[in-house]
Each structure stands twice: as structure tokens, then as C-alpha cells.
Amino acid sequence: MINQLQEKYQLSLLLLLGSVAMFGILPFVAIRYAEGNTSAVIIDIMLILGIVALVGYAYYSKRIRLISAVTALFINVGVVIVVIANGFESFFWVYPVFASTFILIKPIEALCLNIIAGVSLIVLSDIFNTVSLASYVITITMLSMSTFVYASHSAKQFRLLETLNTVDPLTGAFNRRAMNTDIQAALANAERNGTQPLLAILDLDYFKKVNDQYGHGVGDQVLKDFVAITTSHIRNYDRLYRFGGEEFVLLIPGISDDQHTSFIENLRTAIKKELTTPDGKGITVSFGVTPWQPKATIDTWLQRADEALYQAKEQGRDCAVFSNKER
Ligand SMILES: Nc1nc2c(ncn2[C@@H]2O[C@H](COP(=O)(O)OP(=O)(O)OP(=O)(O)O)[C@@H](O)[C@H]2O)c(=O)[nH]1
Fold first, then answer.
1. Catalytic residue among 89, 109, 246, 307
2. GGDEF domain: from which residue to which, for each copy (predicted)?
């Protein structure tokens, strides 16, 4: 989910950059052609085709990060070649290209690429017979540094926004918005690639008593402890979401059938052992578990897990019930 948000944003930037680059360079193809400068026409056309191909490939393949990095490299190498070939005529392209690099890759990577391209220009082109080297160094350094600061600040704010958008502020578990997106993706992946995701609803037993006996603050701490303990016992790509109150959803994207019971039982036992009230009384959790079934939707999948959870509560709590069989 987090990456999806960032990748959508990155793709829109890439599309914008592709359009700007295309409509910015296109008039120069006509100008160079009118001037009879064939090599410049060829270079400009290659730049346009290269950028359009990269942006198009990013759009269809969704390999946004990789293509953004290749595009950053492509436009920096491209601008160095263009300035070497065309001299002063193309010199001012250096500035928009250097600034654009910061919307394609991480600020520190963009800064390094700017430095390499900037120094390459000094070493390889004879432009500085016409342009003042000192002016170039000062202006390009100011541009790169100010864009670096802006891009770093913007990246930090973006991360904060992603966190606010996807994480439950009390417990640090992912929120329902993230859950809906991830479950949707897991279902699509199961239908398409035959993965076997598993879904469980985890509900703390007699949690009202914890609140009543120790106060809401302790209740909050127990919820945080529960998330920390659970997260420490699941794999990196398994996800825990706060469904509401003291109810959580666990999504395991891929696990073989024969591991379902042992995985859930190990997790349940670990939580039971580690989750306690401040005076050391154990807190148990009930599980409603449901393996993926073809044609499942978010609603039907959650509903089956919820029904299994209901049975677990009916059976006296502190147990896991699977939607199609009891364990
Ligand atoms: N401290 C705290 N309590 C919460 C929060 N959200 C929900 N609760 C409490 O969770 C309790 C849930 O109570 P019930 O639905 O009766 O469930 P339970 O007591 O755990 O009983 P069973 O689920 O049947 O075992 C209520 O007392 C809610 O006030 C929260 O964010 N913090």
C-alpha cells in the first residue's frame, strides 16, 4: 500500500516529465532541421524517442522505480552529449535536466548524478571557452543544492503523509484503508498467480475487563504490546491491520496448506505467553481464520473469518477456529 501510493505519484511525475520533455525538445527538431544541422536533429529525435519509450514502458510494466532511475541517467547523459555536440546553443538545457533529476530518483542519488554530469561537462565540452566557468559552477551548484534541500524536505513530508494515510496512530498497525488495498491485491494475485493467502481476524479476549480493571491507558498499552508481539512473530511480508477496537486482521500473502495450523497455533501461543496486564496476568486472543477460496471478495473473505471468530468466542475463547474446520 505504502509503495503503491508512492509509485502512483512517481508515475504521474514521470508522465509529466515525458510530456514536458517531448513538447520542449520537439520545436528544436524543427529549428535544427531548418538550420540544416542533421546531427542535432538525430540527437534530439533520439532523446524524444528514448524518453517516450521509457515513460511508456514504465506505464505498462509498472516498474516505476527502475525506469525512473534509467530515465534520470538517460537525460543526464543525453544533456552532456547534446551540449558537447551543439555547444552554447544547447547549454541552457543543463538547468532543467539537472532539476528534473530530483523528481526521478532519491535526492542524494540525484545530487551525485548532477555532480558527475556537471563535472563531465567541464572535462569533455569546450563550452567554457564561451561561458564563464565560475558562473556555471556557482549557478549549477546553487540550483542542485536548493533542489536537493527542497526534494529532501518533500520526500520527508511524503513519507509522513503515507504513514498518516496507512498506519493506525495508537498501535502502529496498518489501518483499514491499507487493509482494503492489500486484501484486494492479495485476492487478485491469488486468482492470477495461484498464491494461497490466508486471512485471520484476531480479537483480544475479555478486553473490556482490562479497561474496567486497569483503566483505558493500560488498555491502550495492551493494544500496543499486542501489535508489537504479533509483528515480531510474523514474516516481513505478512501484514497486521487494526480492524477496529480490539480487533485486528492478519493477512498472510502466501503459505502452504500444511503450515496453516502450525503457523496460527505458534502465533497464538506466543501472544498468550507474552501479552500480559501490568501485574502479569495473561491476556488471550481468539482467532477466526480462513484460507483463500476461488472467487472470494473482500467482503466474503472477511465475513468467513468473522464467522470463524464468532465460533472461537462461542467455544470459550483462547483458541483458533478455521472457517472450514475446527482446529
Ligand atoms: N483502551 C482502549 N479500549 C478500546 C479501544 N477500542 C475499543 N476498546 C474497548 O474494547 C472493549 C471491547 O469490548 P467487547 O466488545 O465487549 O469485547 P471483550 O470485552 O474483549 O469481549 P470478547 O471479545 O467477547 O472476549 C470495549 O470496552 C471498548 O471500549 C481503544 O482504542 N483503547
1. 246
2. 195-325
220 within domain boundaries: yes
Residues 143, 189, single domain; the answer is no
pLDDT in tens, 5-39: 677 888 888 888 888 888 888 898 899 899 988 88
Active site residue 246: yes
Q: Which residue's CA lies nearest to atom 8 of ligand 1?
A: 245
Question: Could you tell me the distance, in angstroms and rounded to a whole number, from the CA of residue 292 to the centre of ligand 1?
Answer: 28
pLDDT in tens, 121-171: 999 999 999 899 999 999 999 999 999 999 999 999 988 988 898 999 999
Domain hosting 23: range is 2-166
SS3 category, 74: helix
Which protein residues touch ligand 1 with a CB less than 6 Å away? Answer: 170, 203-208, 211, 216, 219-220, 223, 245-246, 313, 317
With contact defined as beta carbons under 8 Å apart, do 39 and 93 qualify?
no
CB count in 10 Å sphere of residue 271:
21
- The helix or strand, by DSSP H or E, that contains position 247, with its residue range, turns out to be strand 247-252
Return the CATH number at 273.
Answer: 3.30.70.270
